[in-house]
Amino acid sequence: MKPIFLSNEDYELLMALSKELQTQPYHVQAAPRYWEPSSEKLEPNFNDEGEIIQIFDHGRCENYTPEEYAEAAQAEYDKFMKEQTECLGIKDQSYLGEYEEEWIEYIRDNIDNARVYSSDWTRKTEHNPSLFLSDVQGYIEANKHHLGRNPQTYANTIWRMPKMEALVDLICRINPPATVEKTEVPK
Questions:
Q1: What is the DSSP pairing of strand 33-44 with strand 114-125?
Q2: What does pTM read for this prediction?
């Protein structure tokens, strides 16, 4: 057997990483596993059957909800409301959610620089993986303002990647399981 010389700091770090790798929860994922941050992001529904209606204004290069667009394109909304007032006798000129479908149709038919489309919330992973759950939890905590809605950890496996399997196995063998406290597997 060939010796590998490590500084005391490197040895302690290797032992701590080996212990963490072996004792972290595995969320019913095959070993070896890795973690990534994930969050829900709005993705366009290409069949235009999504739950969230959005308006993209080409002139402003921004996305809006129908209500936000009523405020951003106030002159167009005023024209729409004038038509509604004449047809339906509406007195209130503020945004009226009950006429949102009519407002969306008005945008489609009358505003050339706006496109109405629909989106759905879809869970997406940020491709920033780690072998350690604590890394990803720290990343989410530090960057949740940049992530989408409802950020959380996502576990995946690397069991068909022979070099990664060998690396994880080697790290675990350095600090055998008999010396590492195992965490209870949730039932």
A1: antiparallel
A2: 0.71
Q: For 87-138, what is each residue's pLDDT tens digit?
A: 766 666 667 677 889 999 999 999 999 999 999 999 999 989 999 999 999 9
**Amino acid identity, position 180:** V
The per-residue DSSP string of the chain comes to -------HHHHHHHHHHHHHHHHS--TT-PSSEEEEEEEEEEEE-TTS--SEEEEEETTTTEEE-HHHHHHHTHHHHHHHHHHHHHHH-----S--GGGHHHHHHHHHHH-TTEEEEEEEEEEEE-S--BS-HHHHHHHHHHHTTTS-EEEEEEEEE-TT-HHHHHHHHHHHHHS-GGGSPPPPPP-
Instruction: Report which of 185, 176, 164, 151 is spatially closest to residue 29, judged by C-alpha positions.
Output: 185
Beta-carbon neighbour count of residue 103 at 10 Å?
24
Do 15 and 176 form a contact (C-beta atoms < 8 A)? no
- The span from the CA of 96 to the CA of 102, in Å, is 10
Q: What is the pLDDT of residue 31?
A: 83
Distance of alpha carbon 72 from alpha carbon 115, whole angstroms: 14
Helical pair 100-110 and 74-88, crossing angle rounded to 10 deg = 120
